[in-house]
Structures are given as structure tokens and as C-alpha cells.
Specification:
NAD binding, binds nicotinamide-adenine-dinucleotide, Rossmann fold, alpha/beta, six-stranded parallel beta sheet, 15 helices, UDP-Glc/GDP-Man_DH_C_sf, UDP-Glc/GDP-Man_DH_N
């Protein structure tokens, strides 16, 4: 196996991990052909267009430099996986929604499907690299699937476990200058200062899913107390989002019915258009349930995505059924194309994503066009609260002393 000369790499899964990671490999290894394959035609089409399917600072430049040279995106999974010397697997591993372990365990259907595909088209030995987040011992299980399903004699599979640590929003920068070259994991700044910030709740495709899966693994090993400990992290996160909605409601005289509320930011964090498990979904649903008219602005999230998220059940987003239709039953939701449109005439502003541009607005002008009292609920603690109070806003900031206005009973 050690003598495999790598001429071609295939990556199964053209998502947030597969796309950027392979683009960087292609950029830096021009002598290797890199092909990213996916069953999702729309996604592949977008990777081959001027409007890439995901937003990551710096990604456009990297893709443009390598695409068509030694970087390709294709739906012909069999051809490219068959020809590759190394196959990266970065398919989705969602939380199970039915059966044993539903709501907690990882659904390995897509992973196993990818393994069966590799086995069925391999005529020569390959290195298979698992990048998806999978439970311990998956490499062993996949090894068995590969071995039992490959009919070509003499084919060997070397399975490398290389779980992804990508952080959306800084993926390209992190790939260029990986923190772990220089420091032990404890000083990795993506785990330290960049993540330990106050927020309305954590989101993203991985963290909750991985914690639930960890709970499940603990349970199957009879470590119930340990499982309960980790489950509490998710419970606290749900509580944080619920508490934020209650805070908005309580401050606004216990009714938000028919009040316009500007929701600033829908992505789960800044510098990405990713909305998977974003806290904005639960916060918006909470406000809508109480009759608020929600006006959402996010620099990178499309209105289709917002409507899909607000009409999709929990965990369903992580399946490659992108054709799912959504009905526009959400009459009280408006997705705005400018911040002014979202905030003008509103009773309150809820900051749910820490986009830098939110700090730069002329809040005096915003205040002048809002209903009074004008509230700001800063779910990310990014705004200048003293300045906002000087202007006249009633400001709620996470973990900070309450505004005198909010301390009184109504
Ligand atoms: P994603 O949903 O964006 O992309 C996965 C892609 O795999 C989808 O486009 C899907 O159509 C494709 N796919 C599924 N089965 C396939 C098959 N048989 N053949 C071809 N394509 C197939 O997911 P992602 O965010 O890129 O995450 C991938 C994995 O990496 C997950 O296990 C996730 O937990 C892990 N991960 C993600 C991140 C992140 O920041 N997004 C970070 C660390 C780890």
C-alpha cells in the first residue's frame, strides 16, 4: 500500500467540508487531479458556476485558480471514485430520526452508501480517508463493508481516520495556516478565544449532532451519568434560545403580537451562509408563535433558505433531499434585502449573528425610524451598548447588568 503513487484524488461529498478542503489540496498540488463528486446535481452545477453553493471568505479565489486545471466537480461518482488512488469521504452523517437511537445516534446510511460505492468500482488498491464525523470503530466497520463488497482480486483498502475540524467562516484561512502545526490542541484558537463567546445559542451542523452521538455512545457503554452530563449541554443550549425569546417578550410588555421585529442575522455564525441548526430558527419560531411579524436580514442567507428552515422539522435538514418543497405558510415572516428594510418601522432589533457589518450601521438614523420604545436585544454582544443607550434604545445584552428600564415590573 505504501507504494501507491497518488495521481488522482476523489472526494465523495461536495459540501462545506469536501468543497473547500479539496479546492485547497488542488491549489497546492497541481500535479494531482482532484475531483469532488456528489449525488446532488444542483450542488455540483453551482460548484461549476460563478456562484458557488457555499460562502467562505477566500474560497472563490481558490476555486477559480484551480478549477478546470486540476480541480473538477462532477456527478459521475462511479468513474472518478473508480479511477482515484485516494478517496476522501465527507458525506453527511446526520442524527437518526427514527429507529434505535433516534434523536441521538449518527445515521451512517450515507457513509455506508459511499463505502459500497467505493467497493463496487475499485479495480486497484486505494486509500480511503474518512473525513465525516463518525462514531468510534466506524473505520473497522467500513473496512468490512469494503472487503466483502469488492469483487476484484488483490485489491487492498487502507482506511485512514482523519475527522474534519473545519470551522466554517475561516475554513480557507485555517487551511492556509493550520493552528495545530504550531500548538497543542489546547491552544488552538478555534477552540479557545474564537469560540468561547456569549451568544444566543450555539448552532452549526456538527456540535449538537456530535454531542448527541457522544451521549448515545456513552449510553451503549452503560455510562448513563456521563451521557446525562453531555446531554445537559444540549438542554442548556435549548434553554438559552428559549430564554432569549422570553426576554424579548417580557421586555416588550408581554406581547409581541403584530409588532415588527427585525432579526439581524440568520446564519449560525458570521462569514458563512450556513443555517444548519442556527439558533435563529428557534428564536424566530418562538417570536412567530407569539404573533410577531419577523423581518429577517442576513448578508448571505437567501429567502428560500430561511423559509425552508422555518418550515422544516428538526434534524431533517441534514439529508440530501434538496428538492423538498416548502409552503409559504409563514405569513408573518419577511426576508429583507437590506438592513434598512428590516429595521425601519420595527419595535425591536434582535441581533442573532455576529456579522461585522452590523456594528457599522448609523443607529441614530435607525432609531429615528423605529417605534418607541425602541429595543435592541443583542444576542451576540457585538454592538456598542453605551452608545445605543445614549441614542435612546432600551438595550438587552447577554450576561450584562439589566437596563434600568427592564428591571421594573410592568
Ligand atoms: P454537507 O451536507 O454540506 O455535504 C455532504 C454531501 O454529501 C451532500 O452534498 C450530499 O449530497 C453528499 N452525499 C451524501 N451521500 C453521498 C453519496 N453516496 N455519494 C455522493 N455524495 C453523497 O456536509 P458537510 O457540512 O460537508 O459535512 C460532512 C461531514 O463532515 C459530516 O460528517 C460533518 O459532521 C463533518 N464535519 C463538518 C464540519 C462543518 O463545518 N461543516 C466540520 C467538521 C466536521
Amino acid at each position: 500500500m505504501a507504494d501507491i503513487l497518488v495521481k488522482k484524488i476523489a472526494c465523495i461529498g461536495a459540501g462545506y467540508v469536501g468543497g473547500p478542503t479539496m479546492a485547497m489540496i488542488a491549489l497546492n498540488c497541481p500535479e494531482i487531479e482532484v475531483v469532488v463528486v456528489d449525488i446532488n446535481e444542483a450542488r455540483i452545477k453551482a460548484w461549476n458556476s460563478d456562484k458557488l453553493p457555499i460562502y467562505e471568505p477566500g474560497l472563490d479565489e481558490v476555486v477559480k485558480a484551480a478549477r478546470g486545471r486540476n480541480l473538477f466537480f462532477s456527478t459521475d461518482t462511479k468513474k472518478h471514485v473508480g479511477e482515484a488512488d485516494v478517496v476522501f469521504v465527507s458525506v453527511n452523517t446526520p442524527t437518526k430520526t427514527t429507529g434505535i437511537g433516534a434523536g441521538r445516534a449518527a445515521d451512517l446510511t450515507y457513509w455506508e452508501g459511499a463505502a459500497r460505492l467505493i467497493a463496487s468500482v475499485s479495480t486497484g488498491s486505494k486509500i480511503v480517508v474518512e473525513k465525516s464525523t463518525v462514531p468510534v470503530k466506524t473505520a473497522e466497520a467500513i473496512g468490512k463493508v469494503l472487503k466483502r463488497n469488492c469483487s476484484s482480486p488483490g485489491v487492498n483498502f487502507e482506511i485512514l481516520s482523519n475527522p474534519e475540524f473545519l470551522a466554517e467562516g475561516t475554513a480557507i484561512e485555517d487551511l492556509r495556516k493550520p493552528d495545530r502545526v504550531a500548538h497543542a490542541i489546547g491552544t488552538d484558537s478555534r477552540i479557545g478565544p474564537k469560540f468561547l463567546n456569549a451568544s444566543v445559542g450555539f448552532g452549526g451542523s456538527c456540535f449538537q449532532k456530535d454531542i448527541l452521538n457522544l451521549c448515545y455512545v456513552c449510553e451503549t457503554l452503560n455510562l448513563k451519568e456521563v451521557a446525562d452530563y453531555w446531554a445537559a449541554v444540549v438542554t442548556m443550549n435549548d434553554y438559552q434560545k428559549q430564554r432569549f425569546v422570553e426576554r424579548v417578550l417580557g421586555a416588550m410588555f408581554n406581547t409581541v403580537a403584530n409588532k415588527k421585529i427585525a432579526v439581524m442575522g440568520f446564519a449560525f455564525k458570521k462569514d458563512t451562509g450556513d443555517t444548519r441548526e442556527t439558533p435563529a430558527i428557534d428564536v424566530c419560531k418562538g417570536l412567530i408563535r407569539d404573533g410577531a411579524k419577523v423581518s429577517i436580514f442576513d448578508p448571505q442567507v437567501t429567502s428560500d433558505q430561511v423559509f425552508r428552515d422555518l418550515s422544516t422539522s428538526k434534524f431533517e435538514w441534514d439529508r440530501p433531499d434538496y428538492s423538498r418543497s416548502h409552503t409559504r405558510i409563514l405569513d408573518n415572516v419577511k426576508v429583507c434585502s437590506s438592513p434598512t428594510e428590516a429595521m425601519e418601522g420595527s419595535h425591536a432589533i434582535c441581533v442573532l449573528t455576529e456579522w461585522d457589518e452590523f456594528k457599522t450601521y448609523d443607529y441614530q438614523a435607525v432609531y429615528d425610524k423605529m417605534c418607541k420604545p425602541a429595543f435592541v436585544f443583542d444576542g451576540r454582544n457585538i454592538l456598542d451598548h453605551d452608545k445605543l443607550r445614549e441614542i435612546g434604545f432600551i438595550v438587552y445584552a447577554l450576561g450584562k447588568p439589566l437596563d434600568p428600564f427592564l428591571q421594573k415590573n410592568y
